[in-house]
Design a protein that fits this description.
Elements: E1 10-11, H1 15-20, E2 24-28, E3 31-36, H2 40-49, E4 52-55, E5 60-65, H3 69-76, E6 89-95, E7 101-111, E8 114-119, H4 124-137, E9 144-147, E10 152-158, H5 162-166, E11 182-187, E12 190-196, E13 205-211, H6 212-225, E14 231-233, H7 235-245, H8 278-287, E15 292-298, E16 310-312, E17 318-328, E18 333-340, E19 350-354, E20 357-363
Parallel strand pairs: 1-3, 4-14
Antiparallel strand pairs: 2-3, 4-10, 5-8, 5-9, 6-7, 7-8, 10-13, 11-12, 12-13, 15-18, 15-20, 16-17, 16-19, 17-18, 19-20
Helix pairs in contact: 2-7
């Protein structure tokens, strides 16, 4: 009997490296991933002040190419692909026919008819089916989606000194690569490496897209050339880093039941173009009757909001819920993301309901912190 694909826990090509470095390994999005090497607090602050390297090879990596690749992306996503040039990347949302977020992703424009799509690991199969179904529906038979997720690795070097340290391994002037732009060239003696000025931490950094056969060499070279200057970091610190910036995490802060408008991602919706569920999102925005994404500080110490915690008002009425929460090492306070079920402008005060106790929260604008970038 064939093993159920959904129950397979995969390893990135760098798995043994993580084990040798003493990482605590957990199952994350169907992959054995490093949770932390030393401590999440140490790794978090090192990225904020120096530089850290993350293995994020669990992320999905698609190549979409062909005559109708632009038409397909334009229709299935909310941002406007026509606004970017070759060598540029774009953050966007892949949505369903009701306007819900199938996934949030970054699209890299390799050429006029070839794109790299970096998607969330948990959504690889779902995204692939959705895109392929529309290729068939519109008979774009000259356009192909190629899943390279298990053939390529993705490394993220993040922190205010990350470009300075990694510059030793390439002749490409990293400081001249603008934010959300990329270059393809030689890195650590490996040719045809995609080096992108992107990341999920809010600190300055690059992400490196490379074939699996060369991933270990680049990982080791970065650490060896920069001994005690760049440290390996796990997904625990990656989570706290992204939360300080208010970046959404799929499956917690956004899902197919939440639209980009509800998630306060209206800036990636370009209504001047045609796309799936455009009329639904226009109506939602016009009527204003939807739950509201919020970011908040917890007023009391040692009270960390977690996914599923309720938000209540002074009368103990449920007015919302938490989607993500963590202790911020920079602010030395607990922070959280979530949703109010009604218009937040009408709410005078709100509380986190935790351990049968009402804890005051203060809604604030994102990001929670300003980084050294």
């Amino acid at each position: 009997m064939m093993e159920n694909f959904k129950n397979i826990i995969r390893k990135t090509i760098l798995y043994e490296n993580h084990v040798r470095l003493g990482a605590k390994i957990i199952n994350y999005s169907g992959f054995y991933m490093p949770l932390q090497y030393s401590s999440s607090l140490t790794e978090h602050m090192y990225v904020r002040n120096h530089a850290g390297i993350f293995d994020v090879s669990h992320m999905g990596k698609f190549i979409l190419k062909g005559k109708h690749s632009v038409d397909l992306i334009q229709y299935l996503t909310t941002n406007d692909l026509s606004k970017i040039k070759i060598g540029q990347a774009q953050y966007t949302c892949l949505i369903n026919d009701k306007g819900g977020i199938i996934d949030d992703l970054v699209i890299y424009k390799i050429s006029e008819k070839k794109f790299l799509l970096i998607v969330n690991a948990v959504n690889i199969e779902k995204n692939k089916k959705w895109i392929n179904d529309h290729i068939k529906k519109y008979e774009y038979f000259d356009t192909k989606l190629i899943d390279t997720s298990l053939e390529y690795s993705l490394l993220a070097i993040q922190g205010p000194l990350s470009l300075y340290y990694t510059q030793k391994l390439t002749n490409i002037p990293l400081n001249k690569i603008s934010f959300y732009h990329f270059e393809i060239g030689e890195f650590s003696g490996v040719k045809d490496v995609l080096i992108s000025r992107t990341g999920y931490t809010g600190s300055k950094g690059i992400e490196i897209y490379v074939s699996n056969k060369n991933a270990e060499k680049i990982w080791n070279d970065i650490l060896e050339v920069n001994k005690d200057k760049i440290i390996p970091c796990g997904i625990a610190s990656r989570n706290s880093l992204r939360l300080e910036m208010g970046y959404r995490l799929y499956g917690q802060d956004i899902s197919e039941e939440i639209t980009p408008i509800e998630a306060n991602l209206s800036w990636v919706i370009k209504f001047e173009k045609e796309f799936i569920a455009k009329k639904i999102l226009q109506k939602q925005k016009k009527e204003g009757n939807y739950k509201r994404f919020i970011s908040f500080l917890v007023e009391e110490k040692n009270k960390i909001p977690r996914q599923g915690h309720l938000l209540i008002d002074e009368k103990d009425t449920t007015i919302g819920y938490v989607t993500s929460g963590v202790y911020s090492p920079v602010l030395k306070k607990s922070i959280g993301l979530g949703y109010f079920l009604i218009n937040h402008k009408k709410i005078n005060s709100a509380f986190l309901f935790i351990r049968k106790k009402k804890v005051p929260i203060k809604t604030v604008k994102l990001p929670f912190i300003r980084t050294k970038s």
